[in-house]
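Milestone 3.1: sequence recovery, worked example.
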């Protein structure tokens, strides 16, 4: 509802404060001028914009900290802007760093990572203090003819990314050094007030997006906390937190003893066109079709032909499956009938009545624990024997249902919040397209 109200207010704002270039009364050179007028702009502004190069408005700064002065060290994040390196490294002290090659970023200056500016790694120093950044960064200052926020928003637009691609150097990783950066063309508005209105508008929208991102992050942390508290630890037989009226101890079982499972299958070779599509084709689930939200994608990447179906494994709706290759440990409850590839495992049956959602969360949590143990946090392979030896905690069926339902509701809330955030980001990109030439 909040996003719906926000969208309504945003539409009202656009209607009351914006004008379309279709309604502008431009007397001369209409075709040429129209190209240099955005599709949407604030009312009261009619002058055409110009395409200018940044070199006319920027100077390279970033004096080296050659004396090794003790200024706070910062990094540039594409999401958070300037971030303290102490905070970035979980409060660790960075006294061991040689800061003599670091560069100063004064209040009112920009810093960017030349290897990551294409994903938005640029920041404006509005911290109210001078900081230092890695010598790898480019530091610059813009003319007072430009509004800082206006330029920052342009740099986050698709139009800027397109310009970056035309100006970057490097075969494997592309770099945008200052000599290339200054040749990028941008929409120059002579009227500083119009720049400021655009910059302020997008900054408010960014603040709203940030609030929704924080809410989403909080929900995800909440889920992780409940996963820790509503399931017993290691060899314990009761969780730290549980629903009322449940007092029995949980069973500790080996996964291979409690459940029956099998791998999917697909005829070889994979590239045979006869195995795909055609009349009677059905969804064919591969690793790529398993999301991180306990669901399959709405439409699988491939459809398995009627000819290939007898050589694969049919899975009805409502079964728990888990990926065994690629992104190992992704879990889903199938929401439609399908055939499943050999890179996935299907849980067919259990020793006792088992809530499918509870089982899915159990498997998901188990793989997360295994990832923490694995080098680099990545499970490279998983054998049937290793899977069979997994310990799983099992309460009574009614408690399973409670836990499964609880996490299902929490996941739905997370999905809804993610949808709101995606909608806001999509709106912003659309407006960036329409409000810049």
């Amino acid at each position: 509802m909040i996003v719906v109200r926000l969208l309504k207010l945003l539409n009202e704002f656009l209607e009351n404060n914006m004008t379309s270039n279709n309604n502008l009364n431009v007397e001369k050179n209409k075709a040429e001028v129209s190209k240099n007028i955005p599709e949407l702009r604030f009312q009261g502004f009619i002058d055409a914009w110009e395409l200018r190069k940044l070199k006319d408005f920027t100077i390279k700064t970033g004096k080296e900290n050659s004396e090794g002065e003790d200024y706070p060290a910062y990094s540039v994040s594409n999401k958070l802007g300037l971030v303290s390196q102490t905070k970035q490294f979980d409060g660790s002290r960075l006294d061991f760093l040689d800061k003599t090659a670091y560069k100063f970023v004064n209040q009112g200056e920009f810093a960017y990572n030349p290897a990551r500016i294409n994903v938005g790694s640029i920041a404006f120093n509005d911290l109210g203090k001078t900081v230092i950044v890695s010598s790898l960064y480019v530091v610059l200052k813009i003319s007072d003819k430009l509004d800082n926020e206006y330029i920052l928003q342009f740099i986050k637009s698709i139009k800027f990314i397109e310009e970056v691609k035309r100006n970057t150097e490097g075969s494997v990783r592309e770099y945008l050094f200052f000599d290339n950066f200054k040749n990028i063309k941008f929409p120059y508005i002579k009227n500083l007030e119009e720049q400021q209105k655009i910059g302020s508008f997008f900054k408010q929208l960014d603040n709203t997006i940030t609030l929704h991102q924080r809410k989403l992050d909080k929900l995800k942390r909440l889920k992780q906390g409940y996963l820790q508290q509503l399931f017993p630890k290691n060899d314990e037989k009761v969780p730290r937190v549980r629903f009322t009226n449940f007092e029995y101890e949980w069973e500790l079982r080996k996964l291979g003893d409690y459940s029956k499972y099998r791998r999917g299958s697909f005829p070889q070779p994979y590239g045979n066109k006869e195995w795909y599509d055609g009349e009677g084709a059905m969804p064919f689930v591969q690793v790529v079709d398993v999301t991180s939200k306990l669901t399959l994608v709405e439409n699988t990447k491939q459809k398995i032909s009627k000819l290939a179906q007898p050589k694969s494994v049919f899975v009805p709706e409502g079964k728990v499956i888990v990926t065994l290759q690629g992104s190992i440990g992704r879990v889903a409850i199938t929401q439609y009938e399908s055939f499943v590839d050999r890179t996935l495992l299907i849980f067919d049956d259990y020793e006792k009545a088992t809530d499918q959602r509870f089982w899915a969360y159990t498997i998901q949590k188990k793989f997360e624990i295994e990832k923490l143990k694995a080098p680099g946090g990545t499970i490279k392979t998983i054998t049937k024997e290793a899977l069979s030896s997994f310990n799983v905690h099992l309460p009574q069926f009614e408690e399973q249902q409670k836990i499964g339902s609880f996490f299902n509701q929490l996941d739905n809330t997370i999905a809804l919040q993610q949808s709101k955030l995606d909608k806001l980001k999509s709106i912003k990109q659309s407006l960036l397209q329409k409000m810049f030439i």
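Residues 397-435 form the longest helix (39 residues). Residues 148 and 370 are 47 Å apart (CA to CA).
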